[in-house]
Design goal:
disordered C terminus; Growth Hormone, Chain: A; globular; single chain
Length: 442
């Protein structure tokens, strides 16, 4: 019987294959950083939409709908991919969809009457990006040795933060905040800002292609299904029935769903809190956001080896506890200096929560349904993403206090931590350890 996964050392060109996978995080991370969070979102609300209020609302709807589409499609397409035995074609299709839509944002001229087409392009690009992570993440346990899966996940996550920040810096100082934009691009009709979308798309292609050239598909233990769609749907239905009965996967997905809601709300409202409570200007908020991404990336990389030593569950637990303490200190801070200190320290533990969650899913997922499981992993990160912002807004209005509203984020960390605490992480358990090809259900 052939194992569903060989040790990385036994795969021809294993080091090159692993580094090519590793580099893909650097390739696609500029999209959420530059397009979704910092540059293009601000440009759309100020220059393309009729007014900032409408633009902000429309942008939020577009991102939310694309995330909902990923939550629905991810598990289904993941199950089908498992039955075809190939993930790279799905990752390639998702990436090309995202890159094409991102590049076409060049046509988002100021005041354009095609505002809805621009929103569609943004939604399609975000859909392709998020869907691609399902297939990308599922490749990790088949490339990295089981004893080092945590460090590879953490290092890749840290490299992704670095890639997003480097691309952001080049975008800001090479295209936007300069009198001479790169490549001689004019500033008329905000061409220099629109060029950033093309730059991100090209960046994605340049640094993403090695994965498709040098990273092999896994060797399957089971024969490829001749009816992948029907087989995939049957597999997904069986998985959902099995998970619904309880077990470590269900516990983890529910816990992650809740603490990820807290992280999502933190990212969405951190800048608003900084501006409203401490009177920080936009450029200061952007600098704080950059600093937060730096510390999060460093934290993900620093905890990568720790993940392999103490386990993914413990890494998440430690990080959530530190987020609770530092989050409370941020809320208690009444001076902007301490807000910066505690806020940047808080960032150190954001990266480990995210990267260790990916590692824990890889360790829990059965070998014959990893992509399907990462589809459910994507679902757990999107299904209830609206609850955190809604609760924060309601408490803020009720208490007439931003601090009170932001305190709801800590509640998500507490509940997620309580649910995750009893989970037993597989160590040498052959039934679900990624070093094994048994494909046993969790």
């Amino acid at each position: 019987m052939v194992s569903a996964r060989r040790d990385a050392a036994a795969i021809p060109g294993a080091r090159r294959a692993m580094w090519s996978w590793f580099l893909f995080d650097w390739a696609n991370s500029p999209f959420p950083t530059v397009i979704i969070t910092f540059v293009f979102s601000a440009y759309f609300t100020k220059a393309v939409a009729p007014d900032p209020i409408s633009g902000t609302a429309w942008w939020g709807y577009a991102i939310s709908l694309s995330a909902l589409a990923v939550a629905i499609a991810g598990p289904v397409l993941g199950a089908i991919a498992d039955h075809t035995g190939r993930r790279k074609p799905w990752l390639l299709a998702s990436s090309l969809l995202a890159v094409t839509a991102c590049g076409m944002l060049w046509f988002a001229a100021p005041g354009t009457e095609a505002v809805w087409w621009i929103l569609i392009l943004v939604a399609v690009a975000n859909f392709g990006f998020e869907l691609g992570t399902v297939f990308y993440n599922a490749m990790l346990p088949e490339l990295a040795p089981a004893a080092r899966i945590g460090r590879w996940s953490g290092w890749a996550w840290g490299l992704g933060f670095a890639g997003g920040l480097v691309c952001l810096v080049v975008s800001l100082f090479g295209f936007i905040q300069t009198d001479r934009p790169l490549f001689g691009i004019a500033e008329e009709d905000a061409a220099n800002v629109r060029a950033v979308a093309v730059f991100v798309a090209v960046w994605w292609v340049v640094f993403g292609w090695p994965l498709f050239a040098f990273t092999p598909e896994a060797v399957r233990r089971l024969p490829v299904s001749h009816r992948p769609i029907a087989g995939g749907l049957r597999s997904l239905a069986g998985t959902l029935r099995h998970i619904g009965k309880g077990g470590p996967v269900l516990r983890f997905l529910v816990a992650r769903m809740i603490y990820t809601d807290g992280l999502t709300t933190l990212f969405a409202f951190g800048g608003i809190y900084a501006a409203g409570t401490f009177g920080m200007e936009l450029n200061q908020v952007i600098l704080f956001g950059i600093g937060l991404n730096v510390t999060a990336g460093l934290g993900a990389a620093a905890f990568a080896t720790i993940d392999d030593r103490i386990g993914s569950r413990r890494t998440i637990v430690v990080s959530l506890l530190c987020l609770l303490v530092l989050g409370a200190l941020v809320l208690l801070a009444d001076d902007v200096m301490w807000f910066w200190v505690f806020g940047l320290m808080l960032g150190i533990f954001i990266g480990p929560v995210q990267s260790a969650s990916r590692t824990l899913m890889a360790r829990l997922a059965p070998a014959d349904s990893r992509t399907e499981m990462f589809g459910l992993f994507a679902l757990s990160g999107k299904a209830t993403a609206f609850i955190g912002p809604a609760l924060l807004g309601w408490v803020t209005a009720l208490a007439d206090s931003q601090r009170a509203g932001m305190a709801t984020i800590l509640a998500f960390f507490v509940v997620g931590l309580v649910i995750l605490w009893p989970l037993r992480e597989p160590g040498s358990d052959a039934a679900i350890h990624p070093n094994d090809g048994s494909g046993g259900r969790p």
